[in-house]
Amino acid sequence: MDNSVIVSDIGKCFGHGNHKVRALDGVSLQVKRGELFGLIGPDGAGKTTLFRIVASLMLPDCGHAEVEGFDTVAQYREIRKIIGYMPGRFSLYQDLSVEENLKFFATLFGSDIKKSYPGIQPIYRYLEPFKKRKAGKLSGGMKQKLALCCALIHDPKVLLLDEPTTGVDPVSRKEFWEMLGLLQDKGITVIASTPYMNEAMRCHRVCLLQNGKVVGCDSPENIRRAFPFKVLSVKSAEMFRLLEELRRYPGCHACYPFGAYHHFYCKQGSVQADTLQQFLENQGYTDIKIKESEPTIEDCFMDLMSQGGKDGN
Amino acid sequence: MGIRERLLRERKAIQSLQDGYVIKVKDLTKKFGDFTAVDHISFEVRKGEIFGFLGANGAGKTTAIRMLCGLHRPTSGSGMVAGFDIATQQEDIKRHIGYMSQKFSLYNDLKVWENIRLFAGIYGVNENLIAKKTDILLSRLGFMAEKNTLVGELPLGWKQKLAFSVAIFHEPEIVFLDEPTGGVDPLTRRQFWELIYEAVSRGITVFVTTHYMDEAEYCNRVSMMVDGRIEMLDTPKNLRTHFGVESMEEVFTLVAQNATRKED
């Protein structure tokens, strides 16, 4: 068996009558042992619900899920021993110190810090200088590291991370993902959700979830290769006016701001860079720069989302 | 305070705005005990500008914003926001700015229109005007059908757009946005920025923090805070050129790695 997590046709609804929300609608996926698996999707897509079901904290309405061969409903006790779960909301004890939080979670699993030390050392070494500090007084990046330590304290086989880097600065985020890389070496299966697309690039495979359904699931490379449009990066001195202009331009499938450039998706290669350049010059734009770019995972994600209709907010 | 006195102060504030700056601070400092959270920062924000306020977690951004919004009293330093003195006229500042905190702060158990009514009322907007503007606002956002929906039932992206619209409902001089797009998906993030641009085109100055470095590019100027100080302040283009790199992500990494303080 080389699948660590198997989700088969899971459905879950919340609410009643007119307010009924289908959070998950026939979701199936397999995550291999030792894989770093990314879950991305807009808010309300069902990511958190899926995490809770896999973590055995919520019962699905239909379908079933298993973790390392254990059924999430019938064998929930087994599952809780082998998973580490880091919920989206910071849920350690703010008025306990770093060390006390770790001790607390270690004790819950019948372990202690000393015994678990080798497993958490690569991450804990960042925290050790502050071990007497109360968790509530840590900055965002440090809180996340502590939460990761607590989730790792019982040497789990599967790690479930629900938006671990939301609200964390770019440098700390990079560190956090480097730590996840270290876990890979130990063969831990990691499922992580994130709104940052450059983090999704670090995953072996990513799954796009929207309105409770899987929209796509593949390696980031393959997802990018499947992008159906040519991408032109366009900039000028006036960026906001340019955006509207480009959206009206014939042959434009869609156009979005991407940092210093706008990304312009061309229908079937119908748009030539030099013709566009000429057109923009005639419209009075200055400092125009146009270049063809490789699609990024963010391009792919936005296109898939906009196809999904209005519920993608 | 009498009405007459307040009007005088407001007139003075308007006059001091005429040099084109909405924020002007000098050596602004905040200490908590013997810890210096914000350490002598000085900068200006021009009227109509989108000013990006960047920095690592724990660099002191939130403390600085709370001083600028009149929520914290500075330990030392001076300056003005929206024409009012940061040390002595905090209540006036609050009345003339908009603020959207990183924590969602509309009332989930009030309807969309009730939230607008409540916050606009707090800012002293005239009741007839509130009703009129509410409909204009909701139809512009495409939210008309959600007027009677409880805010708690809206998706996060909608909540953020609504929170922003509420924060500028009283047409403040400047709006402070503390990580408005944290955790929001890429498509909604972009729609949110289009709202920001639209507000700017109406003359509102925007002061924004973000951890998305592509968003830093949308700002006219950005500052970068490291260990309580402003380490860099320039246009995104000049910063990229200065460091000889292609993206703001790289600029951020280069500047932030000089931090000695890992914790606040």
Q: In short, what is this structure?
A:
The complex is a heterodimer of chains A (313) and B (264). Chain A is of the alpha/beta class and 313 residues long.
Annotate the secondary structure layout.
The complex is a heterodimer of chains A (313) and B (264).
Chain A: E1 3-14, E2 21-32, E3 36-40, H1 47-54, E4 62-67, E5 70-71, H2 76-82, E6 83-86, H3 98-108, H4 113-127, H5 140-152, E7 158-161, H6 170-185, E8 189-193, H7 197-200, E9 205-210, E10 213-218, H8 220-225, E11 230-235, H9 239-248, E12 252-258, E13 261-266, H10 273-282, E14 289-293, H11 297-307
Parallel strand pairs in A: 3-8, 3-9, 6-7, 7-8
Antiparallel strand pairs in A: 1-2, 1-4, 4-5, 9-10, 11-13, 11-14, 12-13
Helix pairs in contact in A: 3-5, 4-5
Chain B: H1 3-17, E1 21-32, E2 35-46, E3 50-55, H2 61-68, E4 76-81, E5 84-85, H3 90-96, E6 97-100, H4 112-122, H5 127-141, H6 156-167, E7 174-178, H7 186-201, E8 205-209, H8 213-216, E9 221-226, E10 229-234, H9 236-243, H10 248-256
Helix pairs in contact in B: 4-5, 6-7, 9-10
List keywords for this structure.
heterodimer, A: 313 residues, alpha/beta, Rossmann fold, Alpha-Beta Plaits, 2 domains, six-stranded mixed beta sheet, four-stranded antiparallel beta sheet, 11 helices, 14 strands, 35% helix, globular, disordered C terminus, B: 264 residues, 10 helices, 10 strands, 24% strand
Trace the largest sheet of chain B across and list its strands: 6-7-8-3-9-10
The structural class of chain B is: alpha/beta
Largest sheet of chain A: 6 strands, mixed
* Name of the CATH architecture of chain B: 3-Layer(aba) Sandwich
- Quote the beta fraction of chain A: 25-35%
- H/E element sequence of chain A: EEEHEEHEHHHEHEHEEHEHEEHEH
CATH fold annotation of the largest domain in chain A: Rossmann fold
Task: Count the E strands of chain A.
Answer: 14
Q: State the end-to-end CA separation of chain B.
A: 38 Å
Mean pLDDT reading of chain A: 91
Large-scale geometry of chain B: globular
Indicate the radius of gyration of chain A in whole angstroms.
Answer: 23 Å
CATH architecture of the largest domain in chain A: 3-Layer(aba) Sandwich
Rounded mean pLDDT score of chain B: 91
Number of helical stretches of at least 4 residues of chain B? 10
Which bin fits the share of residues in helices of chain B?
Answer: 25-40%
**What's the level 1 CATH class of chain B?**
Alpha Beta
